[in-house]
Amino acid sequence: MMFKLLLAASLTFLPSAYASKVAGAWYAGWHATEGYPLSNVSWNKYNTMYYSFATTTSNVDTISLEGSDGSLLPVFVSEAHAHGVEAHIAIGGWGGSIYFSSNVATARNRTAFVHTVLDFVGKYDLDGINFDWEYPSKQGIGCNVVNSDDTANFLSFLQELREESCLNLTISAAVSVTPFRDSSGNPSTDVSAFAEVLDYIAIMDYDVWGSWSSAVGPNAPLDDSCAASSEQQGSAASAVKAWSNAGMPIDQIVLGVASYGHSYDVSPSDAFVSGTKTLAAYPAFNSSNQPVGDAWDNTASVDSCGIHQGSGGTFDFWGLIDGGFLNSKGTTAEGIYYRFDSCSKTPYVYNETSEVMISYDNADSFAAKGTFIKDTGLLGYAMWQAGGDYDNILVDAINSAV
Asked: 373 exposed, middle or buried (CB, 10 Å; 0-12, 13-18, 19+)?
């Protein structure tokens, strides 16, 4: 009862019309000692926080917190509850989904994994679980166990988990911009059974374009129906349509939003419309030279598959300010070129001297997504990640809009 009273009190900080919806963000445990301790979290801006990441292991009886400061999780839960915020655990992630497939592949494994997950929830007094399997029936990081029946097995696991769990445990899933793949490898046309066992899905509308793409494009487009067919790689609008058409109710869809962007090496001859200083749409870039991102960017690391990874070129919103692309108000810094794409509702900045262009989200794009959430009737938003914002510029924009 005390927790429910605290939760109600915390929601008074949010717009009243938004009090029953999800205002969430992921908290990256490994950044707690890299500039974003729990004391920096603006708890009154959210009603849900997902601790990231617990990861799958080859042992179905074990979930690991290695790499995410496992000793911090109890403190995270305590702080969340003290501020009336639901504390969820995110299981998986890009590097932590390797063994999802094998953990749900058989009835015996599914039952064991259900118990493992519920024991973990009980141990840490968690309010919810967010499954971030990247991706069922599709290779993600490069060494994931993959099975053509992953989606069906995942559903069976979730059905058993729901049956075994307490009624007030929130179960959600972070998902791609297209529905889970079926056994033939195509997006499922019917996910209605998932809607019966998941409280909601969070569509990860980010990393739609990046260093792997053929041109500079929007990291997290709101819409792409107004773009050329070759530039329609996915968006919030098309993703919501795809999932809802497949049977996921609109009011069980949360929009995943990004507090970061991707960098590209773009020559001035490609960056500008010929004969002008107007930034061009979808310019070519030098894929052999990835500009280094901010202080949190992955550099010279070895991933979960044991493969060396160079710079990812990721700039958090605060990193754009630290890097001189934006000023402390989150608007374009002096000497930096700016373009706001009216179709995707996302901005781009360009430093002609360093030849670095970045696609990202700002307050205007977050406000546009908040309006989309409200007008479409979505359940809310979840931001990757809380630590990427600067002075609450992004979260304030989306909260105000919804």
From this structure: buried
**pLDDT category of residue 20 using cuts at 50, 70 and 90:** low
The first and second tokens of residue 131, run together, are 């499954």
Region of residue 353 (left: phi > 0; alpha: psi -120 to 50; beta: else): alpha
Q: Between vectors from CA 265 to CA 290 and to CA 393, what angle results, nearest 5°?
A: 90
- CA-CA distance, 257 to 236, in Å (whole number)? 9
Burial of 211 (0-12, 13-18, 19+ CB in 10 A): middle
Model-level pTM?
0.94
Q: Kindly report the length of the chain.
A: 402
Cα dihedral 144/145/149/153 (nearest 10): -90
C-alpha–C-alpha distance, residues 29 and 274, integer Å: 46
Three-class SS of 95-121: CCCCCHHHHCCCHHHHHHHHHHHHHHH
Mean pLDDT value of segment 214-225: 97
Q: Model confidence at 157, in pLDDT bands (50, 70, 90)?
A: very high
What is the structure's pLDDT at 166?
Answer: 81
Among all chains, which residue has been given the structure tokens 């979290």?
Answer: 41
For 133-193, the three-class secondary structure string (H helix, E strand, C coil) is CCCCCCCCCCCCCCCCCHHHHHHHHHHHHHHHCCCCCEEEEEECCCCCECCCCCECCCCHH
